[in-house]
Amino acid sequence: MLNGKKIIVVMPAYNAEKTLRKTFDEVPKDVVDSVILTDDYSMDRTAEVARGLGLDVHIHDKNKGYGANQKTCYKLALEKGADIIIMLHPDYQYPPKLIPAMASLISLEVFDVVLGTRVLNGMARTGGMPFFKYVINKILTFIENIMLGRNLSEYHTGYRAFSREVIASMPIMENSDDFVFDNQMLAQAVYFGYRIGEVTSPSQYTNESSSIGFRASVVYSFGVMVTSGKFLIQKWNLRKFLMFDGRDGRKVL
After folding, report:
1. Can you name the residues that pair with 116 across neighbouring β-strands?
2. What is the tens place of the pLDDT at every residue in 25-78?
3. Which CATH superfamily is domain 7-244 in?
4. CB burial class (10 A; 0-12, 13-18, 19+) of residue 65?
5. Domain locations in the chain?
6. pLDDT single digits (tens) 120-176
7. What are the φ/ψ torsions at residue 218 (nearest 5 degrees)?
């Protein structure tokens, strides 16, 4: 616990056998109350390794997608009574040692959402982010800041911390089961007025790091623009979308 808040780390996993142990070893056990791993029907020994480490393991009966994996993670975390939920990829791309810093900003009620951003101080390129992904990241973030009316350094990091209220109240079940789920969550957080903070996070890209290719990046970019467009359309009261409807959209619980 931290400041009396129960902290649960969720790991949406797919073929993370080689990096899971290294990631888990650096999770600060004096702060984190529980670690939940949801295995999206991996083809390797991810679930077996996770059980050996003592993680709370849940396995999908088929591959459902990155977004669907997170939906399961958040549902399980809420059911276990989490006050703060940290989403950490088990591929060791992000440093688990930042968990206390991210969680403290929420436990002290400074922010409702905290992002581990890779682009400040040149961290992304230093850590090996492919150049085309870096450029796409910067362009999309610039456009989104204009459309969403914010000034974040990055909307596309996979390292995130949320208060229980954020996860429980937003209609994230209306979001995509694919990679654009991450971006839709942040657009929802902005729409519903939650406070979003950032901490600088190193990152490293290796052969074991989860990453999407160029074609998938293009599809993701299109999804990001569609999400931002829906955000503006609803803000301007031109049309309603369930992903931005706090009353009718489906909740996690």
Report:
1. 199
2. 999 999 999 999 999 999 999 999 999 999 999 999 999 999 999 999 999 999
3. Spore Coat Polysaccharide Biosynthesis Protein SpsA; Chain A (3.90.550.10)
4. middle
5. 7-244
6. 877 777 777 778 888 889 999 999 999 999 999 999 999 999 999 999 999 999 999
7. -65, -45
The packing angle between helices 181-191 and 131-148, to 10°, is 20
Report how far residue 98's alpha carbon sits from residue 96's, in angstroms, rounded to the nearest whole number. Answer: 5
| Joined tokens for residue 32 | 């984190």
Tokens 């083809």 map to which residue? Answer: 43
CA distance 235 to 193: 12
Residue 148 has, within 13 A of its CA and on its CB side, a CA count of 29
The average pLDDT across 4-21 equals 97
145 class by beta-carbon count within 10 Å (0-12 exposed, 13-18 middle, 19+ buried): middle
Residues contacting residue 73 through CB under 8 Å, at least 6 positions apart: 10, 11, 12, 36, 38, 87
Q: To 10 degrees, what angle do helices 66-79 and 181-191 make? A: 50
Tokens of 211: 């990453």
CA atoms of 31 and 60, how far apart (whole Å): 28
| Nearest residue to 146 via CA among 232, 27, 209, 82 | 232
The dihedral over CA atoms of 209, 215, 218, 219, expressed in degrees to the nearest 10, equals -90
Alpha helix positions (H), 34-179: 46-52, 66-79, 99-107, 123-126, 131-148, 164-169
Q: For residues 100 and 240, give the distance between their C-alpha atoms in angstroms, rounded to a whole number.
A: 38
